[in-house]
Amino acid sequence: MAVTNNISDPAISYFDKIEKGSSATLVNIFPLNAHQCLENPFCVGDVYPDKTFVHILDETALKLLLTELNTATDFIGYLNEKERVVRERTLLVSAGEEETLAAYIMGDKTIISK
Fold it and tell me: How far apart are CA 7 and CA 96, in angstroms?
């Protein structure tokens, strides 16, 4: 897991140029590799698809996950489910971690059915 810090204000400034009302979290575009992520500010993907999955979160997303998934079992279950749907390429884009988490909670711990 990699966690960024202090990106909220720069992310808001960047995304507000496109459309006002950004949540200031990273946008998940999972088909992006490491090089493509560098070319797309505040967007993260499955940076090394042939290696161990890396969850990339900003401080806002991490706080949200630790608040909503308040046991180690729940938190690890979410990370495992997210990795599954990304690596199976059934989840390609998410406007932010809050969207992915909402799908997980509403889907009774399944983001996208198998």
Answer: 14
